[in-house]
Amino acid sequence: MENVFDVLRARGFVQQVTHPDVLRQRLGSEPLTFYIGYDPTARSLHIGSLLTIMAMAHLQRAGHRPLVIVGGGTAMIGDPSGRTEMRQMLSQDTIAQNVQALRTQLQRYVALEGDNGAVIVNNADWLAELKYIDFLRDIGRHFSVNRMLTFEAYKQRLETGLSFLEFNYQLLQAYDFLVLFQHYDCVLQIGGDDQWGNLVAGVDLIRRVADGDAFAMTFPLLTTASGQKMGKTAAGAIWLDAELTSPYEFYQFWINVDDRDVQRFLKYYTFLPLEEVARLSALQGAELRQAKEMLAFEITKLTHGVDEARQARDAAHALFEGEQSASRTQRVMAGALVGVPETVVPQVRLAAGVPVVDLLVETGLAASKSAARRLIQQGGASLNGSRLAHLEAVVTSADLHDGALLLRAGKKHYRRVVV
Q1: Which 3 state secondary structure label does DSSP give 232?
Q2: What is the enclosing helix (H) or strand (E) of 302?
Q3: Is 305 buried (19+), middle (13-18) or exposed (0-12) by CB count in 10 A?
Q4: Into which CATH architecture does domain 342-418 fall?
Q5: pLDDT digit string (tens) for 263-298?
């Protein structure tokens, strides 16, 4: 059986690792327990977290056991890593709600049953009970302020201001690793590369306090080929929660990735064999669309289920595969585009007439009325397959077909309006 360390390295996951040769040997010879943490600063993770989730899934598939910390304790402090300003402080009630939401979400990606079933834990269970003086005496004495300030996360924040509250974060994350080492025999922590200093601190703390051997491994912090931070778009983050980013919008994000990103993303975000990834990545021109469809379908299936992935794919085919406008509109009015984002308008309001500029804003196809007007003036907006040419156009019940109509902005953004 192939060593999972080699699998991760071949797929581009491995960025930095402590004692790589020893860790590779351990991963290939015995089941290990490893952990990764996610602070519940929102009710959902986004696709920027997906790379670490996929790495966790590869490790579990190879027989290793994941511990997933949902950081109800550390979220009360705020991780300064990768930040130019202090994170917003959240109430305990909000953190508790987010913890439960993330527990449910993570179950889609890792198995909870079996010999190496994942264990989801909340670090508030031990951090909230800490006595501060005891913690400083027993744990804080092992940390060098001079060394902490050499890590990039703290160096960046020193320029804009680093609170003492945040300065404690590395101690708490290192203490998490020590607790998991002592109670779960956890010997490996994984995370994004901006966490390197925190991970190494945990390895060092285990050596000092428990005279134990532990490892740290980080993964790349992704940007797209255009230089944009992974998971961010003009409309905001791409969330894993279907209520925040619909499966259709999620699918469309992956369909529309830059051609230069296709191979990397197939390696990271699917379980396709590398031979198949190489075949798909070698496609050129219009045929590369097949590779993007495979990427979009596979990751949407993993995140939202096969039925939602099929609906998103079918809706995209109906909208983008060169059907005549009339034919496309008929399919929309017949309800064929299940999964396309919808906006509901009261029938009585539509009967009175709604300015199309207002409707473009309400559906999210334009950020403002001025943006909607520019969109129309530039020929980028259409209603039911026909280009909108007049800024004063009003949409009424007469535009409905079977209770719906279709608005488009640009070439790729659609909204179905229903009454």
Answers
A1: strand
A2: helix 288-304
A3: middle
A4: Roll (3.10)
A5: 999 999 999 999 999 999 999 988 999 999 999 999
